């Protein structure tokens, strides 16, 4: 989830097309204390905060029919909400990586649910790269990239020949592939399923606002931002994860470069969010224990704000003061597009989705935790921490780096890769 203070304020001031009752959902709720068997949802909607969650209420799927308190969920969102049949459920993680990882870990381990055949639909708003898409667009990712998992220097302290203060772990230049790997840097999900989700959502009439139309028109002044000047659409492109709500041309270009390098040139830096790598790590760990199926994950983000300004607007104005008009449409488009994905899975359950959509690409993390060989990273060499150019010897005095390198070596040993 990401939404700037100014946009949120303007939204609350009723400048958008629709209104929400954030604290008081319009749908009647029922608290169920005991069940004879675990609930086995066919679709789990993953929301990050109240507006993303409440846009689903009072509509086709009555998500407040069952409300199950699960230990370990966010104190703000302690319940999982489900339809009476249990076919569709919703969990709200809370914002940021720690909240997402903690909530999803508690959820997937809860005895109240059987998630072995569930599809997970991450459905939230995000910032957007005007080189790829625009306000109100609905994006479906193949990659989630934890772009801020790097060394960071203040821009005033970096060498003159550096374009960013971010440098991957274990190396000495921004354009190098990291040599110290934590394992959460990149996740790849089922591209075939993603494409099916795109087909379900394509053709819908997306919500828009007059403020969005006016603001995106400013991007037509730069040819590189032609996509940002167009109307909203449904497309496939990738998501960057960072707890830091970054904004501005320099950081956005730096993290686009990170996405390109860490996915071996196949990732498309498109949307910016705060939770997805954490959510995917928790689902993947559960898949290791056969509690979930990682090939059943869909990452959908709708664009609420541009990650950089158009010509003639300053970086700080773009982030904090102008009304981009994208928040309301982005929230509405979660449901407009997302309900088509849910419909498609339920309608095709017996013929297609019960048995699953077989992935044709690698799925999982950089360690190959779920099997297979990652098609990103530096094949097996990435795990040989810091050996290129004698870097490991040069950095022996750095305690944090030595600890990180040792952690990566242990991970390599667990996978049978020699260093």
From TrEMBL:
Alphabetized UniProt keyword annotations: Signal
Superkingdom of origin organism: Eukaryota
GO molecular function, one term: catalytic activity
Signal peptide (UniProt feature, chain positions): 1-28
One GO location term (cellular component): endoplasmic reticulum
Annotated InterPro entries: Nucleoside_phosphorylase_sf, Pur_nuclsid_perm
PANTHER family named in the record: PURINE NUCLEOSIDE PERMEASE C285.05-RELATED
Annotated protein name in UniProt: Purine nucleoside permease
């Amino acid at each position: 989830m990401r939404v700037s203070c100014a946009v949120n304020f303007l939204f609350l001031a009723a400048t958008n097309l629709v209104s929400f009752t954030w604290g008081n959902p319009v749908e009647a709720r029922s608290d169920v204390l005991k069940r004879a068997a675990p609930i086995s949802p066919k679709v789990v909607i993953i929301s990050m905060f109240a507006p993303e969650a409440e846009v689903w209420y009072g509509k086709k799927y009555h998500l407040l029919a069952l409300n199950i308190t699960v230990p370990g969920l966010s104190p703000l969102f302690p319940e999982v909400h489900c339809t009476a049949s249990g076919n569709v459920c919703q969990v709200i993680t809370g914002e940021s990586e720690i909240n997402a990882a903690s909530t999803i870990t508690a959820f997937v381990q809860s005895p109240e649910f059987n998630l072995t055949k569930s599809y997970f639909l991450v459905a939230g708003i995000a910032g957007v790269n005007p080189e790829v898409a625009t306000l109100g667009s609905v994006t479906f990712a193949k990659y989630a990239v934890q772009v801020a998992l790097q060394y960071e220097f203040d821009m005033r302290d970096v060498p003159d020949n550096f374009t960013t203060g971010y440098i991957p772990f274990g190396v000495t230049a921004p354009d190098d592939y990291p040599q110290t790997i934590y394992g959460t840097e990149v996740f790849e999900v089922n591209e075939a399923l993603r494409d099916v989700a795109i087909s379900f959502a394509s053709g819908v009439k997306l919500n828009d606002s007059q403020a969005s139309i006016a603001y995106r028109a400013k991007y037509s002044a730069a040819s590189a931002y032609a996509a940002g000047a167009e109307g909203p659409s449904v497309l496939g492109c990738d998501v960057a994860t960072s707890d830091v709500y970054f904004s501005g041309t320099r950081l956005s270009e730096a993290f686009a470069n990170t996405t390109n390098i860490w996915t071996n040139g196949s990732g498309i830096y498109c949307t910016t969010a705060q939770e997805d790598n954490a959510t995917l790590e928790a689902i993947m760990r559960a898949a290791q224990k056969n509690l979930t199926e990682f090939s059943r994950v869909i990452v959908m983000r709708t664009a609420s704000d541009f990650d950089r300004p158009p010509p003639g607007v300053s970086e700080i104005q773009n982030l904090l003061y102008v009304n981009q008009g994208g928040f309301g449409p982005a929230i509405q488009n979660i449901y407009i597009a997302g309900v088509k994905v849910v419909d498609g899975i339920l309608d095709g359950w017996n013929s297609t989705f019960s048995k699953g959509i077989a992935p044709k690409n690698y799925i999982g993390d950089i360690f190959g935790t779920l099997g297979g060989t990652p098609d990103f990273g530096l094949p097996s060499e990435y795990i040989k921490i810091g050996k290129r150019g004698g870097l490991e010897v040069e950095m022996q005095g750095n305690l944090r780096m030595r600890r990180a390198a040792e952690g990566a070596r242990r991970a390599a040993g667990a996978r049978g890769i020699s260093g």
